[in-house]
Design goal:
By secondary structure, this protein is an alpha/beta fold.
Length: 498
């Protein structure tokens, strides 16, 4: 499955004709050099495309509308090289519909002390030209990212790169379609939500299919296709028979292979990029999808358990935001299961019945077949592993009835102190920041769910920027969080987002 389009970002430089053609030639030259060097840096995940200098209302408006209609354009980077009267930007900004970054920079890094004159001062006016532009964007209430610093600074380039990934999450959100196989778990509140409002806010289409309709697609998978995928499993993963008959074990694994193929074909045919299942409604399926869902997640599909369509969509978006990232450590749905409250060893064991994405695995990945009391079906095959160490973020998108809130908790993933030989599921273990006690209290105060969309590869800043672009509330739980300040933030947000 192709993750993202060949996206590009347009670089638009603002100026005006007050200082003559020579000045405008220099503006063009400078902006072209910046674009060329940004692309050569190797830091940016997507190409920057230079656009002619914008000096009139008509050209600005036309350029922004062209950006709206160009499918490969994922956002616009703006910079006011010379003073650009901000009223010229109003119509273009009013009609622009994609992510916007304001790069507050200048061509020269250092003041040319020995040669600086009024011609130089007139030409290089970003220090106040960007303020003029910034004022009108703020007055119009337009959400954008502001990055300040010299364009050659690696930190500035990294911040641009980070924003680009957020922009992809914004653009791709409107293309996310979630297939709900059955409904959410009965009487569970947090997996519910307003699907109409979600489509208005995020662009998500959330549709339900009868479980037996997708079971028919599973049943239509040929034996030869199923066996070929089982052979792939046996080549790729460790097989843990644990006393089970080898032929019987393989039959159980083949059920998951058939589910994987059938589900993926159905998703592709119907054009869905995320899926939810529920163990309470499996219809003609022989097993609760386990290994099959894990493999689909690894291919880039979003997933949410027990009908949790919000998590499924968020996992899909976060996987798209990390697509092509060098050294990516993985993104998955996870669930808070149980605490370790021993002093100095605190943390939360993350797992789920079956469906954790192997992209977060470290070390060997094994296949097990174990009984599962929920679902009333055959013993499902699943991939079992432990997860990587290192920092990550856990996110929870919740529907508060009057608005959506994105809760973001920075976490430190660690190795568990001892093996858990009787726990036949994939696991992660983390300590939330600033510590387990404050982190858990803040999460509960914010209304966070027990399912999370987790990633090693994204930052709280990126996800907060995504929430800002979507026009929803976000709260971050990090090393600086205190309960007193956090409760005040929730109160202020309640008034702000009323």
């Amino acid at each position: 499955m192709k993750a993202v389009k060949n996206y590009k970002f347009w670089f638009c430089t603002g100026s005006q004709d007050l200082y003559g053609d020579e000045c405008l030639k220099n503006v063009t030259k400078h902006s072209q050099i910046i674009v060329e060097e940004l692309n050569k840096s190797g830091v940016l995940p997507f190409e920057v495309v230079w656009k002619p200098t914008l000096i009139t209302n008509e050209l600005i408006r036309r350029t922004f509308n062209e950006a709206n209609t160009e499918e490969e354009c994922a956002g616009v980077i703006t910079w006011m090289h010379t003073f650009s009267p901000a009223k010229s930007w109003i119509l273009g900004l009013q009609e622009y519909r994609k992510p916007l970054l304001h790069l507050h920079t200048q061509f020269n890094e250092e003041i040319p002390y020995d040669t600086i004159d009024m011609d130089f001062m007139n030409e290089n006016q970003a220090a106040h030209g960007d303020r003029e532009y910034g004022h009108i964007v703020s007055r119009m209430g337009i959400e954008r990212k502001v990055v300040m610093g010299h364009w050659s600074d690696k930190r500035v380039q990294e911040r641009i790169a980070s924003w680009m990934r957020t922009a992809i999450g914004v653009i791709e959100s409107s293309h996310v379609r979630v297939m709900r196989v059955a409904d959410n778990m009965r009487n569970v509140a947090v997996t519910e939500g307003d699907k109409v409002e979600a489509q208005l806010k995020f662009g998500w289409e959330v549709d339900t299919y009868p479980v037996n309709e997708i079971a028919e697609a599973v049943g239509a998978v040929s034996e030869s296709d199923t066996n070929a995928l089982v052979d792939e499993y046996y080549d790729k993963y460790e097989i843990l028979l644990e006393g089970r008959d080898p032929a019987e074990f393989r039959r159980h694994v083949a059920v998951q292979a058939q589910i994987e193929i059938g589900f993926e074909r159905f998703l592709e045919e119907k054009n869905y990029q995320a899926i939810v299942t529920h163990f309470g409604d499996l219809g003609a399926l022989k097993q609760l999808p386990g290994l099959a869902i894990q493999r689909l997640e690894e291919k880039g599909y979003g997933f949410g358990a027990e009908g949790d369509w919000k998590v499924a969509a968020m996992v899909r978006i976060m996987k798209l935001m990390t697509s092509g990232m060098k050294g990516a450590k993985g993104t998955s749905m996870l669930e808070d299961y149980t605490y370790n409250l021993v002093k100095g060893k605190e943390g939360i064991l993350q797992a789920h019945m079956l469906e954790i994405c192997p992209s977060i695995a470290e070390g060997p990945i094994s296949i097990k077949c174990q009984p599962l009391s929920m679902g009333d079906r055959e013993d499902p095959a699943r991939l079992v592993f432990t997860s990587k160490e290192g920092p990550g973020i856990a996110t929870s998108l919740v529907d508060l009835g009057t608005r959506f809130r994105l809760i973001i908790n920075e976490v430190d993933c660690k190795k568990v102190e001892k093996p858990m030989p009787k726990l036949p599921v994939a696991t992660n273990f983390w300590e939330p920041k600033p510590n387990l006690y404050t982190g858990a209290e803040a999460w509960i105060l914010a209304g966070g769910a027990h399912h999370t969309a987790f990633s090693y590869d994204l930052t709280s800043e990126q996800m907060a920027d995504w929430a800002d672009a979507m026009g929803i509330e976000s709260v971050i739980i990090d090393a600086d969080t205190t309960i007193r300040n956090f409760k005040n933030e929730l109160r202020w947000n309640a008034a702000s987002y009323r």
